[in-house]
Amino acid sequence: MNMSGEETHIDFNHLVTRYLSGELSPEELSGFQEVLRKDPGKQELLDEFRKIWDSTGAVSTEERYDLEREWALMQEKLPGFKNESGFGKTSGGGGRSLLYYSYRIAAVFVVGLMLTLSWFYVTRMAGMERVVAENEPVEVILDDGTEVIVNRHSRLRYSRKFDQQERKVYLTGEAWFDVTRDASKPFVIDAGAALVEVLGTSFNVNAYKENPTVEITVESGMVALSAKQDTKDLIVMKAGSGGTYHKSQRELKLIPSSDPNSISWKTRELFFEGSTLREVADLVNRVYGVNIVIMNRELASCPITVTFRDQTLEAILNVLEITLDLQATQVGDEIRLDGEGCVE
User: Fold this and answer.
1) CB-based contacts of 53: which residues, under 8 Å, 6+ apart?
2) pLDDT value at residue 10
3) Model's pTM, two decimal places?
4) Which among 255, 284, 308 is the end of a domain?
5) What is the pLDDT of residue 52?
6) Among 33, 96, 231, 299, which residue's Cβ finds the most Cβ atoms within 10 Å?
7) Is the pLDDT score of 114 beyond 60?
8) Which of 64, 97, 125 is the endpoint of a domain?
9) DSSP strand pairing (167-178 vs 202-207)
10) How confident is the model at residue 51 (pLDDT cuts 50, 70, 90)?
11) Which domain does 18 fall in, by range?
12) Does 40 have pLDDT greater than 90?
């Protein structure tokens, strides 16, 4: 992330709204945090924005006010942001640049806009709670006793008090649910492109925006999965099975036997049978939030059969080193696996 010179102020305000809504990628988040460390003034500005944000709550993708679009429109209307020769034209006579005054106006505009929207958010989001899991999963107990564990880089929005007809929550990312049974009030998860409905059961929902599918894994009970645009077409999954909804193809698919590693991020139980080291590394990366890099193709294709039950990352690496005769080395934020590969 390159943020320097006079463009820094504009970029920073764009990133603030995405940071507070939990939409920054891991790479963007790292760069954003570095900017805050280097500039205490920006940290103070972020703190002010956070106070406003926390007082207004969050909204779903469909409901969210498009602050970035408003920012772009403001840039077009305010003098000094853009002109034929670019940023920073002065008003002449050695005075301050129009850009300088535009920044000051922009700062007031953004804060004023967020304050103006406070009433809008509060009236629409009254009684709502939100959970944003960044680098570690977050556990929450809902009003009805339902347990939810929200996976890293995921968000959950829910009502403090469910209404009389249904219990509805909104998920972006991945979460595991253990739903308290209530036959008179279905539990509904809005997962973006798909809807998940249950009465009382435990299951996992993988609904990251970047994934082409919404994936369900049922641990107990029964779960119904339908497209958000057509709730009449649905599939019903029982314990031990799963299902997917393909967003672009708008296709529902029942999976008779679910992947045992689908909830490894929660249980930290990893099962491999004849799996390649590449497959092992990819799953360990997702479960432990690390960056394992395999240094050569031959090593990546080596097969391994092993089960890890709530092991530390160090213990897993030790087993891989001994089993496949490789070396694990920490270099910066990477864990590099190197070796000659396996013998055919």
Assistant:
1) 20, 114
2) 46
3) 0.59
4) 255
5) 56
6) 299
7) no
8) 125
9) antiparallel
10) low
11) 5-125
12) no
